[in-house]
Amino acid sequence: MKLPPCLSILSGHLCIGGQDCVEIASRYGTPLYVTDGDRIIGNYSAYERALHSHYSRIRVLYAAKANGNLAILRLLKEAGAGADVFSSGELSLALRAGMAPRDLLFNGNSKSPADLTLAIRNGVKISVDSLDELELIESLAAEEGNEVEIAFRVNPAIEVPTHPKIATGLRTSKFGIPHEQIKGAYEVALSREHVRPIGIHCHIGSQILDVDPFEKEAEVMVRIAGSLVDLGVPLDFIDLGGGLGIPYRHATDPAPTPEDYANRVMPVFLRGMKEVGIQPALWVEPGRYLVGDSTVLLTRVNSVKEAHRRFVNVDAGFNLLIRPMMYDAYHEVVLANRALDPSQIMCTIAGPICESGDILAYDRPLPIVRAGDLIGVLDTGAYGFAMSSQYNARPRCAEVLVRGGSITVMRRAETIQDIIVPMEARKW
Amino acid sequence: MKLPPCLSILSGHLCIGGQDCVEIASRYGTPLYVTDGDRIIGNYSAYERALHSHYSRIRVLYAAKANGNLAILRLLKEAGAGADVFSSGELSLALRAGMAPRDLLFNGNSKSPADLTLAIRNGVKISVDSLDELELIESLAAEEGNEVEIAFRVNPAIEVPTHPKIATGLRTSKFGIPHEQIKGAYEVALSREHVRPIGIHCHIGSQILDVDPFEKEAEVMVRIAGSLVDLGVPLDFIDLGGGLGIPYRHATDPAPTPEDYANRVMPVFLRGMKEVGIQPALWVEPGRYLVGDSTVLLTRVNSVKEAHRRFVNVDAGFNLLIRPMMYDAYHEVVLANRALDPSQIMCTIAGPICESGDILAYDRPLPIVRAGDLIGVLDTGAYGFAMSSQYNARPRCAEVLVRGGSITVMRRAETIQDIIVPMEARKW
Lengths: 428, 428
Hints:
The structure is a homodimer of 428-residue chains.
Chain A: E1 7-10, E2 13-16, E3 19-20, H1 21-28, E4 32-36, H2 37-52, E5 58-63, H3 70-79, E6 82-85, H4 88-96, E7 104-106, H5 113-122, E8 125-128, H6 131-144, E9 148-155, E10 177-178, H7 182-191, E11 195-201, H8 212-231, E12 237-239, H9 258-276, E13 281-284, H10 288-291, E14 295-306, E15 310-314, H11 323-327, E16 333-335, E17 345-350, E18 359-366, E19 374-378, E20 398-403, E21 406-411, H12 416-420
Parallel strand pairs in A: 4-20, 5-6, 5-13, 6-7, 7-8, 8-9, 9-10, 9-11, 11-12, 12-13, 15-17
Antiparallel strand pairs in A: 1-2, 2-3, 4-14, 14-15, 14-19, 16-19, 17-18, 20-21
């Protein structure tokens, strides 16, 4: 199997960022998420550079939803990233990581009055999802005596080749304002006192491995930008969102690079802006692409069973990695403590959760696996820990960060006390 | 809409256990899980009584995975329940709720050495999922100088009409020992020094609305029990698991009662035991049936949008209730603050999470809904909060318990600090 750049094999052990996963697992316990910080920085730099080589006004907003660990937000902030935040929580994390309010965009289809007030007070731009929300923002901003810079999120009605649950630019999606209503929305915004429409926003989905839809999206956005300028909207930024996927199936998935993305999107954008006669900043919101391949989930084998399949029962399930169950997602798996042993038998990696669907990987060729062995589940940096739960009363595992030869705990493991304490504020 | 027994409408407000949901929501905030404790006790009593009227040696083990709140475990303990626990965490919660170790069964396909040791030390019976696990138990029990009472979990290879992710008795499921291997497994167990096989266990799945499969299961288990007795296994309990569903679609779903269940299962069990010549305890493991219809999730409307559909954007999404997204599950919804207003328009209830699939309910007839309104999502007591996450950096909501006219917080709401603190053990 072709390993992602941050992984290697030394003396038969899987290594990440040069560190031995077997040692890390025995030191920090399992299950365990291990992230290579340098890989994240490398991914960020590649993304930024690819766009910047076409145009100077580029801003990369990291989609914090992919992995909201503070250590990762801090790394990305140092590298120059802002953030696409989707809740008051993500906004708070981004600020705590040191990001400036001007480098954030508050997105989402359902923001509460408290969410919006937090953004307004902090001077964070808001991507507005409906006229109903616009009016709420207007009244909250008036109360605060503030003016808010906004964009509308456009629903471009673009079909994309990804899982329907994460295809966010479909006509039927809950996100954004239908593109045929968008001019009317800006007209309303221009007439309001406390909102200043200065941008336009779109995001067509996640885990897209074909750059065609991004080109189509750019075409739609350029067209809309032109009509908005005609309307008198002082467009200062166009946000094309994120969505570039990663090759989870190492052998067969296409692996479009940020260059591939930029080479298709930027000519459309630049030609369009020239025609419209403006030079707005171009914002993008990569999430998965920056963090996805930086992380391995280490999980210990509890037992092996021959039944309908050969089940390798491990200590991590969909409580920690829900993507296989939720989206039929594929992750490569490696026998981390004997990574050079030849594959001999098909194994199904089963988690400990009480549902038949709790399978991390079906029918993978592996060496003979035994209780006590260590499995590495690859490419788990995006939508891994971020979507974890305490289902089956399982405390969530630790996350560690490998960087420049050192290993630090970036989220401590929970214990059963973390589950009990919020229930014991009073005795029953 | 026919409301479940714990709900009513007074002055146009949805009430639970006689308490006004609008007042509860304004007092405790939204989103909010509200549970009627009396309903749980009523469900438990009905279940226990239905079986007990056929046979005296009945033990009801509550499937703690459905809802692991300590307050609920304590209620059920007082009512006489034991628990089916699926992890060290659930075992700890059950003990903390005051349940006796003898009233617990430790289930699961993937138990770690630490899980097994905890069970062994506490004298909790174990349902063993594989021979590999049996040998591990034997060696751990030897280390502890203890003897452990066990059952094997049988895979009965029964097709059941439910969602495939929760059909646990299929031939292809990860759970249990194929029934044709089960005799051999007991032979091994009988030959080991520190395990004492005294039971047999099965669980065919969850949310089953037809009692036929339970009858088939009982037939399989009776047949196996006979062969085990022939083998010399001193069978002291037969555990048929749980799985009785609830009618989430109030108007159209079948609603089998515990009596329906008992009337089909008990004759098979009793006839079989008479033929075999033993009188083992009959254990059952209801989860959803006991708690499912006891709870409403209250969620506030943030905005309303006319797009492809009429989207009612609320403050709870699949971070708090994943069933609609994960299993295409259906939950009735009620406009809790104007519950008697006539339905006028189809609404789609959308959560605040960053995925297109984050829809709690599609196309439901509701009155004209406005920002600030309160939606009640019904029948959310099972696999609701239990499967919640902090996805999108959203602190999880509170759970409150209504009982005998009083309201208590049974799990406090989280804040962003609950998310930050585990990441700030050290500075970066």
